[in-house]
Amino acid sequence: MSDLSSTYSKGLPSNPKILLVKLSSLGDVLHNLPIVWDLRRRLPHAQIDWVVEEGYVHLLEPLLSKNGFSGIDRIIPFGLRRWKKNLFKLSTWQQFFAFKKELQANSYDVIIETQGLLKSAIVCALAKKSSNAVISGLANATEFSGYEPIARLFYNQSVQVPMQCHAVDRSRWVTCSAFDWPLVDRTIAPQFYPKDYVDSLSVNSGEVLKELKSPYVLCFHSTARQAKRWSNEHWISLGNELASSGYQIVLPWGNAAEQAVSKEIALHVPNALVPPAFSIQEAFSVIAGAALTVGVDTGLTHLAAVLGKPTVEIYCDSPRWKTEGYWSNNIRNVGDIQSPPQVAEVIEASLSLLN
Fold this sequence. Notes:
Blueprint: H1 7-10, E1 17-21, H2 26-32, H3 34-42, E2 47-53, H4 57-60, E3 74-78, H5 80-85, H6 90-103, E4 108-113, H7 118-126, E5 129-138, E6 157-159, H8 167-179, H9 195-201, E7 216-220, H10 232-243, E8 248-250, H11 256-266, H12 280-288, E9 292-296, H13 299-306, E10 311-315, H14 320-323, E11 331-335, H15 343-354
Parallel strand pairs: 1-2, 1-4, 2-3, 4-5, 5-6, 7-8, 7-9, 9-10, 10-11
Helix pairs in contact: 2-13, 3-8, 10-11, 10-15
């Protein structure tokens, strides 16, 4: 970071208005959260707004400053996924211009874009900016991550990051460059959801929780990419081992195909439960009440790790360095790209967190 000019930071006000642009997906939004506390630590009175896809607003709502936490001041929902399906409807364009009006309600001194995609860069272009505004974004791709070089045209500060850079660290590189700060020490544990908020989740019961019997273990076996899955046979072996120790195995799902896999695994594990579908909001409470979460490289597994709950993250066909939970003794990371872990390794990691 030593080669970065301090020209931009010298013109910034002491309490700047900051816009974070990280639109999606679940895991990406979660791994962007630490920069909120990085900013609050240095700029406690700054205004921090965040543009995010409307489906992930609920992830950020607990962090609104009005809820008692010194976190985000304003969430600006972005409906691109829905708008693209109804591009020729008048209502779509009315909603887009309403979004633009909300986005431009403030003039921002710093815009931090950590996604490196054209859609998020365009949000930067649409935002209203002060005369010396810094628009900081990625100058390059990292391995196994999506990146669109054209996005650089929308920044006035492009940041070169290591080719192998953890998702949390990548956001911190871009943030620190915007203010010409020293890079945050990786050994400093990222802060995510405040502990008092996480603790409150266990008492927020919902319909899904009524079917769960403590102690239970959540098994997130599904993910968008088939190669990232761990085999059904492995899940069955793990489930039987944990069931024999008195834990109810819970097999969540998100669509019909995933539900079928959950039912297949449950047939071979005593007292296993395939619960009703639940929302991201309900997932907070379900995860908070679990004795353990075991899951492949997918958003809900990362949510358990972000919440600081006992979590085993299984990597089968994605690099562990990219998203592994390194901030808590409650997290075990097993396997790696093209190197799925053996059942014994996952059992050992699970029991180490349960005992």
